[in-house]
Amino acid sequence: MSTPIFTTSSSADHAAATPASAPIAVVIPYFQRQEGVLQKALASIAGQQLYPAEVIVVDDSSPVPARGEVQAVRARWPNLNVRVIEQPNGGPAGARNKGLDSVSPQCDYVAFLDSDDEWHDTHLLHASAALAQGNDFYFSDFFRLGHSTTVFEQSAVFKKDAHPVLPGGYPVAQYQGDMTEQILGANVIGTSTVVYRFRKFANLRFREEFVYAGEDFLFWLTLSTLTKAYVFGTTPEVTYGRGVNIYAGSGWGTEKSMDRLHYETKLELALPRLFKLNAEQQGRNRAKLRFLRHTMVKDIVHRLTHRKPINGPLLWKHLAMDPKLPLYVPAVGWQIVAGRLRTQAAPRKE
User: What is d(CA 256, CA 260) in angstroms, rounded to the nearest whole number?
Assistant: First the structure.
């Protein structure tokens, strides 16, 4: 395993040396309303100990155009090869697919980075070293926004120490186990941590019909049925940021909660159709659907009782997709009434 070779740079603001590049294309779907967000993501690429061959930014009709953000980064890091592709708004799945369609022939691998996330400087170095040993898929630990502990540390199921460390001196382990079950049971794969062998799976794309939720989850699931050669970075290599996200501020009863519940339900309904689930996985799927249906009914009741707006077209679309939802109205209604009766009957504290 070789140490990166460094070449001199002509940029006054750049470091004295620029690391050699690897045959990696970075795909960034871009839609942001705040200036400077993309610049931070690109700066984290420019700070890598191993450069990618190219960076493809797909501007999904962003309110803040990508070209201005990229121009500022090019001025500081002229050796960073960044391309901007502009397209009508179609969501992150469509933007990632456009990026995959545009990968240059010399690139063997693809790395994903969301435009509000930042890589730690060893990310591509570790991924390249791990994939060079014949592996197909790399992911790493990461920090969610506002968390001081990592996703691996928070998981009660994923145990990083149960997997053997790869030779070569890097904090990278060979995943051993059923990755399909890992993803279905307790997914720890963050999109911005993924680097995979693109040429081997050149026809694989994100399912655009899921728009904002589940398309990356299904991508990982599909790959897990095609390869067992998984490796992961045992240390955090990505810090997630705060940008435009359908889940931001989408807690129960909020403006975007119906959207979130719609797409999560759509994902759960699709899983048995798209993948062969075992009995335990089918049970979890049914339980999740029951929970989502109860929650959707409660969300609608909350909006009605508090005179909050209901997205009528989305509701009709949801009912067409999940006609069983009305069957849950009586049970939820009884839960609400029983909850109020318990509250009224509770002894008053003096």
Answer: 6
**Long-range Cβ contacts of 278-284 (<8 Å, 24+ apart):** 281/181, 281/184, 281/185, 284/184, 284/185
Pick the closest to residue 185 from 156, 206, 161, 154 (CA basis). 156
What is the residue whose two structure tokens read 């955090």? Answer: 236
**Distance separating alpha carbons of residues 303 and 297, to the nearest angstrom:** 10
Cα separations in angstroms, 191 against 1, 61, 93, 328, 333 = 26, 21, 12, 34, 38
Which two structure tokens, joined as six digits, stand for 274? 């798209």
Q: Is the pTM of this model over 0.90?
A: no
**Residue from 190, 41, 3, 21 nearest 107 by CA:** 21
- Measured over the CA atoms of residue 334, residue 335, residue 336 and residue 338, the dihedral's sign is positive
**Could you tell me the CA-to-CA distances from 87 to 26, 112, 215 in Å, in that order?**
18, 18, 19
Tens of pLDDT along 219-245?
999 999 999 999 999 999 999 987 545
